[in-house]
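RETRY 2/3 - previous attempt timed out on the joint model. Re-submitting the same 1151-residue input unchanged.
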Amino acid sequence: MSQKKSRSRGGGGAAAAGDDHEDLARPPPLQAVLLADSFTLKFRPITLERPKVLLPLVHMPMIEYTLTWLESAGVDEAFVFCCAHSNQVKEYLEKSGWAGRAGAGSMAVTAVESHDAISAGDALRVIFERGLIHGDFVLISGDTISNMSLKDALREHMDRKKKDPLAVMTMIIKHSKPSVLTHQTRLGTDEIVMAIDPETKELLYYEDRADNSNLYVTIDKDILSNNPTLQLHNDMEDCYIDICSPEVLSLFTDNFDYQHLRRHFVKGLLVDDIMGYKIYTHELRSGYAARIDNFRSYDTVSKDIIQRWTYPMVPDVISNRNCSESRLHRQAIYKASDVTLSHSAQIGANSVVGSATSIGDHCRILNSVIGEGCTIGKNVVINGSYVWDNVVIEDGCQVSNSLVSDGVHLRAGAIVEPGCVLSFNVEVGKNALVLAHSKVSLLPQPSNEDSDEELEYADTNSGVTDSPPFSSMRSNGDQATVPSEEDESGTSETGTCGVVGYIWTSGDAGILEEWRQSIAPISKEKLEELQHAVSENDGSEDESNNPTLPDKDDSSDSAVEDDDLISKFEKEVEETFQRAMGGGVNRDNLILEINGLRLAYSLQHADCAGAVFYSVMKSALQAAQSTNDSLLKTTAEALGKWKDLLRNYTKTVDEEMEILLKFEEMCQETTKEFSPLFSKILPFLYDTEVISEDAILRWAEEKEHADESDKVFVKQSEAFIQWLKEAEEEDDEEE
Amino acid sequence: MPDVQPLVSDFVLKLKRRKVEGSHAVARQTAELLRSVVSQHRMGSSANQAAALADAVRAVGEQLIAANPIELAVGNIVRRVLHIIKEEDISSTAVGIEGLSVTVDSDDEYDREDDDRPSLSAAVLAAHARNALRAPSLQTLLEDIPVSPAISRTASSTGDSDGKSKSAGDKTSTRKLKHDVIAAIGDLIDEIDSCYEPISEQAVELIHQNEVILTLGRSRTVKEFLYAAKEKKRSFRVFVAEGAPRYQGHVLAKELVEKGVQTTVITDSAVFAMISRVNMVIVGAHAVMANGGVIAPVGMNMVALAAQRHAVPFVVVAGSHKLCPLYPHNPEVLLNELKSPSDLLDFGEFSDCMNFSTQDGSPLLNVVNPTFDYVPPKLVSLFVTDTGGHSPSYMYRLIAEYYSADDLVVRRKSTA
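RETRY 2/3 succeeded.
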């Protein structure tokens, strides 16, 4: 019914003039585009079988929250764009009664289906082609949870548009604690830096920084010159709720390369000053809004829901299915009325237990969400986990900080370590151990993952055919009774025993990044690391804690950023160099690689020379024994071996100077072992023609006027310099 | 009944999403919805029309109550409507006995009463039947004596029209039952709308010259009550506790000042400090339970305890739609609603305290924002309802006048 309605509306808007009069009389219906596809792979492997928007978030599919909010925010018509698993989404809409509901005051929901869209940009282009949107609309993805009131933002948007038709979009942002940690630890996303005009709230600059170690933002000077005042925010969260004018859709069509809403569209619009389109922001004062981007934000948002920040979208108020009402008890414990709970079982604070679930003796359930129809045996400990529906957990299992999907069967004594994701119907055998951060699915990992392919789910038929060797040890549940002690040894075959399903290797993010976006709490060390990174950003370096990084020039603040860049560069060069030492990489290739790095960091040739020299010396130091003699020997060897490489960089006196200065710096600060040998190594450098006499003399000359402390090495090598000078004079005389 | 289903589900959604809140609005809308349910109900030809109608109401009522179990007014109105159907059924069958000599099963007790006054109209009979349903009380003793001669004039006409023939009579009696029920629900809606008047009429008797009144938060009933006293040229002062975290007290203070009432706004925590200067506490309620306990905005129990400590009368004003026939069980938890913590804290400022990943996954900061407080009956001095002032121990009698005992659990007979 709603479909018919929307279609007739679409036809009318395009053709009939009579409609226009009506539109003038009363405000056009507020429309919304809901992207029921995140176009990312972050929720794999679960999303291979079920779309992300249908994953239960505290017993309700995410899309239910989004649709409920849209309806309560006064949206008249919503288009649900589904791509992957579109049948499931459509079926859900039918079943839950969203689609086909009609009548005054309720929202019409229409599914829009397209199978070849691989990005949000494609989705919006499809929406545009179908001519569904006639007025301003709310753009939201199906994994956004909110209870905010849209009224103010809408009014602001409309008022602005009346004055300035180029204001095409209003972005909803939310204040959050100005701490770099918060972004990471709360939502597992990167910090966002925005520049906003404090008067007009116009967004001038938007950058989601992928790397916290980048300590600076680059703002175009035009922005600074055109706007007398601007506020730079790093304490804002992007809610990913946008109010857009219809022009936005045509912009997407005009710029067919726009894929990502933020990365391409917003940035593209901000950079493009030909058309002059503007984006404004609306700061959320009261109300909650957050987007579930990854497993960590899934965890955080779930807990926010349990703590009732999303009221009235909380478990005891809304329930979509006709199951028994869940009631809220003290300490934020939600229990359905037909839960079978053993007397000795203990349910801790902030937990939710779904209906028809039975929990056995001496179980402990803490900070967890247990779905419907689960059977939990005796002595089970579930901590900080999300157990979906119809899961069987036998006696003595331990599950911590993991996600357990529908139909999973954990046999007695199984242990699931933090950060695991068990996809649908996976079985874990007796006493088996699922290692931390492993992702287990009945479907094998697609092997042809292109990094630039941003499909949420590759279709399951392709990419399955040749699964990598690690996933080929499908074992039967019966024989999977290997003792768990063995398993701890490694990530290879033994680790997977006792699990029916494929264990996925971590994706392109790499194993190091796993902790960022998993449900598991961040370990102390990582936190300290983060904290340290943060404190470093503040400019308050603690030298004693950080011996590996070369010390920074305290005297000039402006050099701090530069120094950091160089030290990073040096590190990479060192790594490259070490690889070259170990694997015997061709010298030419090494030069190529280092040149590549230099270009990547956009540094001078001289910096490169310094870095290479640093690496050479470092390698010598590592090879050396503790005594000075052996150090001298290895240094000589290393220099002899790599002199060609060094000579490649020492084309001019400047670069030679750089090496000298670097050497001096090393002796003074990082590798003090060299300091007594300075004067002995210097002649050697001269002999190998790495450094010319001109450079040494100029260095000595420059140092003449420096502080006493800086002159230590000049003095140390005075004899050599003297000799050089004499030699030069002799040369002159000869001429 | 398919025609009302969209209406019902719409209202259920509104209740669920907490779009309709406040017992007055909820009561009114529930009554209106039930009126349309009754008017849309297709009377079958089965013998027991009233039971079918009651079942239809029950089916809807069940959904409504489940939608927001905290809004007790929904259940109250559903039970009131069920009670109305029962009353009207009894009165119409009584007419049937008189005009058509149809044997209808009804309780002996009512038959006896009906036999005494064979020529009365349905309306009068309904009044009698109501009396019969009510337990005898002081108020009802005198009630019907002046009424009966006045209405008996119309009795003959209605009695005649009903008694044409058996088949026609059957049809008209069902139509009449429906009509009467709709009319009675209309009366109920009027009663809900005008419940402030009979309550505020009593204001002058309770508020004396130069008294100091304390109230907490904002209740429309309290506001009307104080207005009425002011209009009667009483001069008094009002302390308004602001009613954190919703701060409805600020709104009330503004409204009172507009009417020229001396008003002082205090924080909730200052209630105890001020109570010694107060002559009377007058507050509104969310619901009045059968034991005389009160579900009221949060902070009320503290006010009541302070009042008791200083022997200050604690008066609760509430319309009859707030009378709930249920007894409270674990009311602090089960008859409460925890709202969003954002009323108390700014999420942005505290987002770093809600870092679940930094500890072992358990949040260190919890925020509890309950809506209601339970005030036990022993702390309440007086209830002022539209039928007058009552002590807490009398509430169960009052409730017996409005509800039938077998409607306490609203559930469809077939499922039960």
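Chain B touches chain A at residues 6, 10, 13, 16-19, 66, 69, 333-334, 338-342, 346-352, 354-363, 366-367, 369 (CB under 8 Å). Closing ticket.
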